[in-house]
């Protein structure tokens, strides 16, 4: 099960490291914010794009992202072929994707992190999806991992 989580993280995380960016400690501080304090359009966008990725596992059809939705690195790394390959294994372990349930919203100096509990048809599935939205209101990363009741701030910046 952890292997599947690792595989989906590698493919969906879109976390290819292009260059090292030095940050001061203020950039790394993460604080939980109220859902009411978050831009509703941005929140809907994060939900819709996260759901679009996970629904690929049900339909095997992915509507590609465009430059008004995501950063170039996310667009380049999220292809239907990569998602379909990963989803075959994911669907076998967790069943059909049902929906995302917002668990919390976190802010750093540079981005907003939406933390969702991903709901699947099999009860053994306990997955999390994090959608990162940058200051330009573009999704800068999508990460899938095993669910943990506590938000791990260390994982947020990887």
Give the gist of this structure.
The chain contains 6 helices and 5 strands; from the N terminus they run ααβαααββββα. The protein is of the alpha+beta class. The chain has a 5-stranded antiparallel β-sheet with strand order 1-2-3-4-5.
Describe this structure as you would to a colleague.
The structure is a single chain. With 158 residues, this protein is of the alpha+beta class. It has a single domain (2-11, 33-148), classed as Nuclear Transport Factor 2, Chain: A (Roll), CATH 3.10.450. It has helices spanning 2-12, 25-28, 40-59, 72-77, 80-94, 153-156, and strands at 31-33, 97-107, 111-120, 127-134, 139-146. It has a five-stranded antiparallel sheet with strand order 1-2-3-4-5. Strand 2 and strand 3 form a beta hairpin. Helix 1 (2-12) runs antiparallel to helix 5 (80-94) and helix 3 (40-59) packs across helix 5. The chain is globular. The two termini are 21 Å apart. The relative contact order is 0.22.
